[in-house]
Write a structure and sequence with these properties.
By secondary structure, this protein is an alpha+beta fold. 50% of the residues lie in helices and 11% in strands. The chain contains 19 helices and ten strands. The strands form three sheets. It has a five-stranded mixed sheet with strand order 1-5-3-4-2, with helices on one face. Strands 6-9-8 form a three-stranded antiparallel sheet, with helices on both faces. A two-stranded antiparallel sheet has the order 7-10. A hairpin with a 4-residue loop joins strand 8 and strand 9. 29% of the residues are buried.
Length: 458
């Protein structure tokens, strides 16, 4: 018989034997079929009693039924021999090749050129909006497009590359992190550094516009330039920026850095301007503490070895503090997304029981008068005054046992998270290590500085 094309109610189709043991249609596929219908015809044959038996297209059929499509296209063929059916079903699925990330980004760009908004593209292709946004960002960036095509980055990763397409060093770091791991942490550090550099450039431009020369920040033991708070005038009085403004050596340096704000419980960018004299000896200034160093608080002269050790330790502290701040941003973003799920992770009951049995200051603090301040933030609810738990208990209304168990896990995790800080990597504790290792078991990728807080690499 010649193949015949029919329009058939999908609910009347019968799924025949299939190489797939358990054919299913995920919600994205169902959404696509609901929006656009079944594009590729289902292949079926007819029994003597009239039933149509699906040979190819079981998932399409299930999606059409779930989407409540009134009809689907069905190509009517002769009943195949069992061996032919199985071979064809295997070949049909084995030789499908998914679109690459570059293919997808280009397609989104072409749809946008047709006048479709990102929201419309997401709706019509049954794709999550962030994926479409990422694809459009990648298609518009040569660096990101290259990262996808040459290095196999995902759209989400390449969209981060697109943020820094003009910064070759940043792109190299991101591409390397996509290959070796820790991409989210490296991306956050790159973002932090970019914001810091931009803030410093803005402050430096303002100083230059005001006629103040801008210099690099001096090392702690540099002989020049010297910070004004380390200098005295002829009368033995401390120098001020206003009083020193007429000195030929008057200058300033700018330093922006991320600092943890205890009140808001998050990192904030702090920009500091310090005024210096580029040549205090020539311009007649005295050093507040004697000696010749720019930043020493004592005339005692440390050995070269001591200076090197102190410099190395200081650089390590600064670097790891910055790394911890960035990791905290990534970790809390991950927690917020993880806690939005509907079901508790495997092993949740044991984790809850263990945490309650151990007790500890973290839980006591979270159960205090503030009543889980960080949990409110990460669960996305607004607290109605201190000591009020209505917003959190409201999440339990109508919750399933699994969802309620997840919320319990959330309260405990947020209690442990709130107890972490910049000193966690230096002063390791069993509680912090247990908390971070549990996140790792849930799928969170620990940063190097978080591994230090656990006592070292896994």
């Amino acid at each position: 018989m010649s193949p015949t094309l029919l329009d058939v109610d999908p609910s009347t189709l019968v799924l025949g034997d299939n190489a797939r043991l358990h054919p299913s249609a995920d919600k994205e596929f169902v959404a696509s079929v609901r929006e656009r219908g079944v594009i590729e015809p289902v292949i079926a044959y007819r029994l003597e009693g009239g039933d149509l038996i699906v040979v190819h297209g079981a998932r399409r059929t299930l999606a059409a039924v779930a989407a409540k499509r009134p009809t689907v296209p069905v190509m009517l063929v002769e009943a195949p021999k069992p061996a032919d059916r199985l071979v064809d079903q295997l070949v049909e699925n084995d030789h499908r090749e998914a679109l690459t990330a570059a293919d997808r980004a280009t397609a989104y760009q072409q749809l946008a050129a047709c006048g479709l908004s990102a929201a419309t593209i997401a709706k019509r292709t049954a794709t999550k909006r962030p994926v479409v946004d990422a694809g459009l960002a990648v298609a518009a960036s040569p660096a990101a497009t290259s990262a996808v095509a040459e290095h196999g980055l995902t759209l989400t990763q390449a969209a981060v590359v697109a943020e820094f397409g003009d910064d070759e060093a940043a792109v190299r770091k991101l591409v390397e992190a996509a290959r070796t791991g820790g991409f989210d942490h490296v991306a956050e550090r790159v973002r932090d550094n970019a914001q810091r550099d931009a803030a410093e450039a803005t402050a430096a431009a303002e100083l230059a516009a005001a006629g103040v020369p801008v210099v690099d920040a001096p090392a702690w033991d540099a002989t020049s330039p010297v910070r004004l708070d380390h200098l005295l005038d002829d009368a033995g009085e401390g120098l001020t920026a206003e009083g020193h403004a007429g000195c030929p050596g008057h200058a300033a340096f700018v330093r922006a850095d991320w600092d943890w704000d205890e009140d808001s419980d998050r990192s904030t960018l702090v920009v500091e301007t310090e005024f210096v004299c580029t040549d205090p000896d020539t311009h007649g200034h005295k050093r507040r503490h004697g000696g010749s160093g720019a930043g020493r608080g004592s005339a005692a002269e440390p050995s070269e070895q001591d200076r090197a050790r102190a410099s190395t330790e200081r650089r390590e502290v600064i670097a790891n503090n910055k790394a911890w701040d960035s990791a905290t941003t990534v970790r809390r973003r991950w927690l917020r997304e993880f806690l939005s799920r509907r079901t508790a992770p495997k092993g949740a009951a044991l984790f809850i029981a263990d945490a309650i049995a151990r007790g500890g200051g973290q839980l006591h603090a979270a159960l205090g008068y503030d009543l889980h301040p960080l949990a409110h933030e990460l669960l996305g609810v607004t607290r109605d005054g201190y000591g009020n738990a209505d917003a959190l208990t409201g999440l339990l209304a109508g919750a399933t046992d699994s969802r309620a168990q997840l919320l319990t896990v959330a309260l405990i995790l947020c209690a442990y998270e709130a107890a972490t800080g910049r000193d966690s990597w230096r002063r390791q504790s069993e509680d912090t290590a247990r908390y971070l290792r549990y996140l790792q078991a849930l799928g969170y990728e620990l940063a190097d500085v978080e591994l230090l807080a656990c006592g070292g690499p896994a």
